[in-house]
What we know:
Four copies of one chain form a homotetramer. Helices cover 36% and strands 21% of the residues of chain A. Chain A has helices spanning 17-39, 98-108, 119-127, 166-179, 200-223; strands at residues 49-56, 59-64, 78-81, 87-89, 112-116, 133-137, 154-160, 185-188, 192-197. In chain A, strands 4-3-2-1-5-9-8-7-6 form a nine-stranded mixed beta sheet, with helices on both faces. In chain A, strand 8 (185-188) and strand 9 form a beta hairpin. The longest helix of chain A is centred in the last third of the chain and has 24 residues, at 200-223. The model of chain A is unreliable at 1-13 (pLDDT under 50). The B-C interface holds B 41, 44-47, 69, 71, 117, 119, 122-123, 126-127, 162, 164, 188, 190-192, 218, 221-222 and C 36, 40, 138-141, 144, 149-151, 201, 204-206, 208-209, 211-212, 215-216, 219-220, 222-224.
Amino acid sequence: xxxxxxxxxxxxxxxxxxxxxxxxxxxxxxxxxxxxxxxxxxxxxxxxxxxxxxxxxxxxxxxxxxxxxxxxxxxxxxxxxxxxxxxxxxxxxxxxxxxxxxxxxxxxxxxxxxxxxxxxxxxxxxxxxxxxxxxxxxxxxxxxxxxxxxxxxxxxxxxxxxxxxxxxxxxxxxxxxxxxxxxxxxxxxxxxxxxxxxxxxxxxxxxxxxxxxxxxxxxxxxxx
Amino acid sequence: xxxxxxxxxxxxxxxxxxxxxxxxxxxxxxxxxxxxxxxxxxxxxxxxxxxxxxxxxxxxxxxxxxxxxxxxxxxxxxxxxxxxxxxxxxxxxxxxxxxxxxxxxxxxxxxxxxxxxxxxxxxxxxxxxxxxxxxxxxxxxxxxxxxxxxxxxxxxxxxxxxxxxxxxxxxxxxxxxxxxxxxxxxxxxxxxxxxxxxxxxxxxxxxxxxxxxxxxxxxxxxxx
Amino acid sequence: xxxxxxxxxxxxxxxxxxxxxxxxxxxxxxxxxxxxxxxxxxxxxxxxxxxxxxxxxxxxxxxxxxxxxxxxxxxxxxxxxxxxxxxxxxxxxxxxxxxxxxxxxxxxxxxxxxxxxxxxxxxxxxxxxxxxxxxxxxxxxxxxxxxxxxxxxxxxxxxxxxxxxxxxxxxxxxxxxxxxxxxxxxxxxxxxxxxxxxxxxxxxxxxxxxxxxxxxxxxxxxxx
Amino acid sequence: xxxxxxxxxxxxxxxxxxxxxxxxxxxxxxxxxxxxxxxxxxxxxxxxxxxxxxxxxxxxxxxxxxxxxxxxxxxxxxxxxxxxxxxxxxxxxxxxxxxxxxxxxxxxxxxxxxxxxxxxxxxxxxxxxxxxxxxxxxxxxxxxxxxxxxxxxxxxxxxxxxxxxxxxxxxxxxxxxxxxxxxxxxxxxxxxxxxxxxxxxxxxxxxxxxxxxxxxxxxxxxxx
Lengths: 224, 224, 224, 224
């Protein structure tokens, strides 16, 4: 209890008591965030998935089980998995896109990864696919992205082609993030948003920032 | 109690205790779903109707009574009916469109049928009536439809001409579904969506998927 | 208690105990409806007003006091007034538009009058003012309007020029309704919707129907 | 307790017991308003900030601490500051834009200042920046702005160029308000709305009025 789980030695086949506690705390927070996103229509129809880092060495992530109604998330909706996406706690199967979460955590050291699937991200990623991304600039709301200090910032939001081959896609994500370590998120074409943060609070803020900005970008174009 | 109501012999004028239990459970779930849909504006003004199969032989459906405010559904808002839409439990009149529910259950073996009446389905079915349907493809969200494994799937969402003659309309629905047993839903022109599932959970998911996709399709066109 | 307040003789300066009861019941229902409309954004910024008939002879209406936040309505938010809009119960001033409520009740015998002030009614009444109204037809949702039996119905939703002179405006409303007793509602230009019903339940349903249809009409035009 | 804090002598380093009470009452009201605005999507991603005047001489404002999730505001989310934006009660840092609140309170004598950051204000201020403002007229909803008596009123909503230099920006705001003391609000370009009132209730009403009107203006243009 209370020991620093991140530096503790991992014994295969066992789990650390600190880990169980962190799992409980993080999944409770993830469930609350997920229900809020569902209310806003950002994760309808079992879409979306959410994870948070329990420990880094060995890598342990709490992540939503696949195929759940995000309006009814509770602690039992999550499993704990290792970096190969094998379940080490809880029952269920991790989200199909679990490897993308692992890639983001591994390359950027993120503490939490949130994937939403809103109307605006779907429309925007469908309309801009040929440009392979959208530049967003001039908006005060950009300052909500970690490290951004001025509305004059130019945020590049890449759009990756969607795929059902998760190991292929996680390689493309890995490459994208290695080449662009300052990104705050990316879109999968006609699919949705991936964003992350040092912790859950930051990742949640990034979801709200991007969802807001994507709606603004689409509405501003309709007006123009 | 606990006997298999689906295979039990039906004695005219009686109801089975297992049936009463199933009726109570299913109508409680239907009421919750209906109130959620009302919150989202999908069943305003007493529009919409919802059913779930209690038993198949004889066919018994729990279905909303006609003319109710879907924001205030509770157990008393439902009746149990047979395949001729005659009430066998509860007080009230089944929804005018009860025969469409029966047709869907009979042809496809659905376990639940949900009809929503949203702004997006009304706008989309009004704009596409001359094509007799809308093809939706390329969206990850399609994978939320039962049996769909890839975003490359092409979902045909037929639009039937609206009618006030429910036996004529239920025949057209029957014919449509017999010829296209892989459909996941259809629209009535300037009216709304019918979708279904093996059970209520699946049917609810299908509503969310289609409502999402219809909004995306209309918004994407406005942008184009 | 329980006496028929509608036929009781009115003694000036007194109120009937049955009236007090009806006032309590109706204002509780009006408050609930008002808070729901506020949640939907239909009566922001103290806009909107709601009334219900307590008795007809003498005419007594429960009506919102002027200038209140509709998200915080309770019993104290209403007064009882006579047909001259003078307060006979409660403290506060009736809504500035009280005379329009009286006109609707008097000409059509309505039991409840609801005025909402949504974005869609404001946009639609601004865009169509030169036509003095909007015809809405072909929508299944029209069947939610009392007495309408088919989606083929053509509903004329008149738009009256807005005014701050309430006696002049109530005369125009009176004339409109005398000449068109089958109307279900009307718009004030760049202002909002008035609709009504035999009772509160029907009036609330009419609000939902019209708000839905106005959004559909505006969105369908954007698409066209 | 109950002494008139606004006229009491200020002793540096001390706080007045009446002040502590007013701080508690006002921050409770501010927190409620903030959570409501968050629900409506007007202050996502830690955007937005809210203040209310505790005393005028010396000037004391309760204001949101910087960087908070507005969906989770409570009493601890606020600090009390003086006119130089130095904290005199509570822990935390005032919002970066604290000096704008001070400028509005000082020039206009406002009792509360609310800054929202909605999609509509961002789109509208982006589209109209070259005009340095938007004229809004003809809408009944304008009457919700303090002192406006008719829908024929013309409200000028200025758009100031956004900046990260808060003392420069607060000087521009001061000059704007001195030259236009009848304004009810202003926009910062691609940033959001500032509005105010004699008290919190009035300021909240003004937010709802402007947010409504901005959505109407943008939607009406899309239709035209």
